[in-house]
Design goal:
The complex is a heterotrimer of chains A (103), B (102) and C (311). Chain B is an all-alpha fold and 102 residues long. Chain B has 3 helices and no strands. Chain C is built from 11 helices and 2 strands; from the N terminus they run H-H-H-H-H-H-H-H-H-E-H-H-E. The termini of chain C are far apart. Classes of the chains: A mainly alpha (103), B mainly alpha (102), C mainly alpha (311).
Chain lengths: 103, 102, 311
């Protein structure tokens, strides 16, 4: 395996690790805001690393540019939805939130 | 176990889950989800069998499944409109055992 | 090694399907269904069906998910009791579903052993591809070889729209109250970035569908997703009277395709034959407009849509 493949493999493993960390945060943190914190930051960093790895493996500038656009779109969508969810969680609940496991 | 075999087994399991959900679900929205699962399982079966030879995939089942996906979403939208009307007319969106006539 | 990935995806599909039918709450079932759609898109990519992957991600997971969530929200607005699930006990359910799954598995296993030569239609399409105006075999099948299926599919979309309007009560559709948050400037910025980009991507998918994965359905679904975003953030509000855009948009695909087909019939070349690449792009463009309009109207659950109060 040459240098590019080794670098891409390392980046992919790191990206997977960040996704794993984000999921652990989602499952283990106590409330909405800290879960959002884990999800938005860790998952999007993981996405960036995976996109970088794909750009290295793809081997063309056009593909790399498209992957960069994908990452930026992912960031945009995640940050807006995170903001909206956090804002909604602050308002007095119109309907009581369903605790885990209850209908 | 080839790739096609794995997905054929998965399709069978998804179809089974859809049938189970259709029979067991009390809420109509969940029945609708089960019908969609049935559809997805059938599509998976079709396309998995299309590529079983490992060469160029057969384009005819793929085109049929694209058509199928659009028809499934049309059906879902219509079923939701029906559900909405039923709910507003009768006040509930469920089919419980007590409602059966037999 | 790649079979491990397929096995993982297959197991995820089955687990997600079981979560959909036995989820603790209705909300969880809907969310699991959307995730199921996304994993299906990955599976289509693994099965070398990129057209299907695009269509499933946009229509199956995206638009379907939005439709189901809005339906859930309308029910929920009447109170939490409306969305309480509760299984009806049925002793037949488990054995029956196992029987069906076993039947399908045995059918599939047998079909796996059949030689590929029995799929004569596919072989004929692949053999006829070099002489076609478009290089994407799925687009060719959809429009050139099996045009009737696509024509009738446009009719199905229209019938679903007409049916949804017919079933609506006299009181009109339940209105979706615009949440106060959608006036936030960040939402406006998101729309300003995403909606024009969606239009661009839809046009690209339509154009690329000739020679690469893409096509009218995928482009129409991306455009419908932009419309869904506009409806959800209050930029397009439901309105009891349909305007000309909604009316013409919904029927355009069917009209153009049928008109072309009849003109070809009148010229003696057979109904629905496509005289060249231009005809394919014309019909696909009309289809894109129709698909997008119909899906957004179905989502808005109202005969028409008007520009909302927010910028």
């Amino acid at each position: 395996m040459n240098f590019i493949q080794v670098a891409a493999t390392i980046l992919l493993v790191l990206g997977g690790f960040f996704y794993f960390a984000g999921t652990v945060g989602l499952l283990r943190f106590p409330d909405v805001h800290s879960r959002l914190h884990a999800l938005t930051k860790a998952d999007n960093l993981g996405l960036g690393l995976v996109c970088l790895a794909m750009a290295l493996l793809g081997g063309s500038w056009r593909g790399a540019a498209m992957l960069l656009v994908i990452w930026l779109l992912g960031l945009l969508a995640a940050s807006v939805s995170c903001h909206l969810v956090a804002q909604a969680a602050l308002e007095p609940a119109a309907e009581p939130p369903t605790p885990r496991g209850d209908p | 176990m080839s790739q096609a075999a794995i997905y054929v087994m998965a399709a069978a399991a998804v179809i089974g889950a859809g049938v189970y959900g259709l029979l067991v679900a009390g809420h109509l929205l969940r029945k609708l989800l089960a019908i969609n699962l049935l559809g997805s399982g059938v599509f998976l079966l079709l396309v998995a069998l299309a590529g079983r030879s490992g060469g160029a995939p057969d384009p005819v089942p793929q085109a049929l499944v694209i058509t199928g996906i659009v028809v499934a979403v049309s059906m879902t939208a219509f079923a939701l409109a029906l559900l909405d009307r039923l709910f507003r007319e009768t006040g509930q969106a469920r089919m419980d055992v007590a409602d059966d006539d037999d | 090694m790649s079979l491990a990935l397929d096995g993982l995806l297959a197991i995820s599909l089955v687990v997600l399907a079981l979560q959909v039918v036995t989820g603790a709450s209705l909300f969880r079932s809907i969310v699991m269904f959307v995730v199921f759609g996304l994993v299906m898109a990955l599976v289509w990519a693994r099965l070398r069906a990129p057209n299907l992957a695009l269509a499933e991600a946009a229509i199956g997971a995206g638009v379907s998910g939005a439709l189901l969530m809005l339906g859930y929200r309308r029910l929920r607005a009447a109170g939490p009791e409306a969305t309480r699930p509760g299984p009806r006990s049925s002793r037949l359910a488990a054995p029956l579903s196992l029987l069906v799954a076993g039947l399908v598995a045995s059918l599939g296993w047998t079909a796996l052993g059949l030689p590929e030569a029995l799929g004569a239609a596919g072989a004929a399409v692949v053999a006829a591809m070099p002489s076609q105006a478009v290089a994407n075999p799925v687009t060719a099948v959809l429009l050139v070889f099996r045009g009737y299926d696509t024509l009738l599919e446009l009719a199905v979309l229209l019938v679903a729209l007409a049916g949804a309007r017919a079933v609506e009560g006299p009181a009109g559709p339940a209105d979706l109250a615009i949440p106060t948050m959608t006036g936030l400037p960040i939402v406006g910025a998101l729309l300003a970035a995403l909606v024009p980009l969606s239009v661009l991507v839809a046009g690209y998918l339509l154009h690329a569908g000739g020679n690469a994965p893409g096509g009218a359905f995928q482009g129409g679904a991306v455009l419908a997703a932009a419309g869904v975003l506009l409806v959800l953030t209050g930029r397009l509000v439901p309105h009891p009277v349909p305007g000309p855009v909604e009316r013409w948009g919904a029927v355009l695909g069917l009209l153009v395709f049928s008109a072309l087909g009849l003109v070809m019939l009148a010229r003696g070349q057979g109904m629905l034959s496509m005289p060249g690449a231009w005809s394919i792009y014309l019909v696909e463009s009309a289809m894109l407009v129709s698909i997008a309009t119909t899906l957004v109207l179905l989502l808005g659950a109202a005969p028409g849509l008007r520009r909302g109060p927010l910028p």
